[in-house]
Amino acid sequence: MSSDKTALPPSAVADTEKRLQDDSNESPPRTGTAIKPQHRRLHDPDVTFEEYHYYALKTREEEKNSPPAVPTISIWKALFKGAGQPETDEPEESASQTEERSNVLNMNLANRANRLEITDEEWVNASRMMRTASWGACWYLITTDILGPYGVGFALGTLGWGPGVALYTVFGIMAGYSGWLLWKTFLGLDSYQFPLKNYGDLAFRIYGPYARHFVNILQGLLLLLVLGQVIIQNGQSISQVSRFRLCYSVCCVVFVAVGYLIGQVRTLRNYGWLANTAVWLNLMVIFITMGVMAHSPPNYAISVLGSAGSAVDPSTITPDPKTGVYPPVRHYGGLPDSKSLVGSLNGLLQGVFAYGGAQLFVEFMAEMRRPFDFFKAMWGAQFFIYSVYLIYGCYVYHFQGQYAYQISYQGVSRYGWQVVGDMLACVSGLISAGLYGNIGIKVFYNNVLMDLFRAPPLTHKGGKILWAIIVPIWWSIAFVVAAAIPDYFGFVSVISAATVVQFTYSFPPILALGYNIRLYALKTSKGDGFDPTTGTVIRQDTGLKRWWRGLVNGPWIWNILHVLYGGGALATAGLGMYAAIEGMIEAFENPQVNAFTCVSPLDLSQVSS
């Protein structure tokens, strides 16, 4: 080896081996001088980018030759699946394969001593067995997660026709591009030997342990808050259906109690079937509310509680003091009130929140049999979602104008149709909430319980028991956090600005930038790369020179655009936080309306008094 080359990792290999010996009191089996992937620590910082990338290319080549997953399980079996029932149409296993599957699934792989007994084939098969979702199931998962068009009419009312349509179009395109960036980096770093499980793992393999901890904490907070937001939204629906005779806090608790049951579904492959139901329920609500809005006036009574007019110009929803007649429906080509920056920014954040599903994309890909097919699910779902958003949002704004309510089906004036919309959306929201709870618990389980406390994997009997215990605790915490905030509209804005913007618009270009720099810094023609036999990584140089080469030798124009894209997203998040905080300050001046009381936020007579 020439003197200008750096062979990695002699010291890293020695350090890692020493830690293995300290934990297991035995030398790990070796192939040459290489440490096998299953003998590594969980989230081992000594694994290099080159090693991750080598095994990723190997896995992608194998997946190209595998048939696509075609689910054959019913919705009923998704909730109450008996033991041993197949989840896909794969060929039947032999007796030895069944025994191997049982042995691996019943072994606590979080314990490194157990992993020392696993062969290379068993390790790869254990990873492969966790990937069962098809791209069709993933399409439903993405659509269920992102499809929430009920606030689009409200957002258009705070922004006007031109800015509203333009921003939803731009946000939709950029959300799709962000998903494409996550897909590319995932394919380059995920493998059967080193499976990627969540967003934090992706950050770890590009930027290191601190990035992983930051992303995991933020993602866990996001999923907890979004779950809380869904609980509050559907608690309002139940209270409206009961005509406020049922205590508002009880309405939320009822929703949470049902969530304890649906949260027991562990795999995203099973959630694909539930998501199918949720998508069609959402479409039913859309069509019903469109028909009702065309033949009835807006719900004037609750417009002061969360309509577009209340956010940007309260005078447009104030009835005449003499006649009690409300102002006519009004539309704007541009911003309704250029001086109302806070109102417009909050409307913009509703648009950002609408596309905020990228925080789950890595988790979706991690459970797909062929992650390469994710781009079909992602682009198909994004196009469908964008079309629904614009068609439905423009329709609501056309008929209701400044009276467009932040949850559109609660803004219809006929009680009977309010009930229909509330109940259908409640079932759909329950499935969505189950999805957020599912991913949130997995982030906590994989990165806290397994990493720090060596909890068994979720395929293990002990892991299943822990999951059943954690689900009600997680849902209860989400309810308590969300219930303490007296302003649903402001709550959504805070979630959007502080977390959703980051995962959908800030982090993807930042991750893609780091991935490109590391990838294009490799001089493969001069021998750079990973040798699986010796475990050696060869690099021509290190430090700033290497980083600079990766920046300018790759798609440097795109690298610069990624810097600008990420910076612009962070600036948007900053402005959004300002608007959200201003709105929350005003809401907390009258903090009596929250989910710990019996007064519903939609009960105008009680709220006013």
UniProtKB/TrEMBL annotation:
Keyword Ribonucleoprotein: no
Principal subcellular localisation of the protein: membrane
InterPro entries: AA_transpt_TM (IPR013057)
Parts of the chain that traverse the membrane: 137-159, 165-183, 214-232, 244-262, 274-294, 347-366, 378-399, 419-445, 465-485, 491-515, 556-581
PANTHER family (UniProt xref): AMINO ACID TRANSPORTER (PTHR22950), AMINO ACID TRANSPORTER TRANSMEMBRANE DOMAIN-CONTAINING PROTEIN (PTHR22950:SF461)
Sequence similarity: Belongs to the amino acid/polyamine transporter 2 family.
Protein name listed in UniProt: Amino acid transporter transmembrane domain-containing protein
Species the sequence originates in: Paecilomyces lecythidis
Classification lineage: Eukaryota, Fungi, Dikarya, Ascomycota, Pezizomycotina
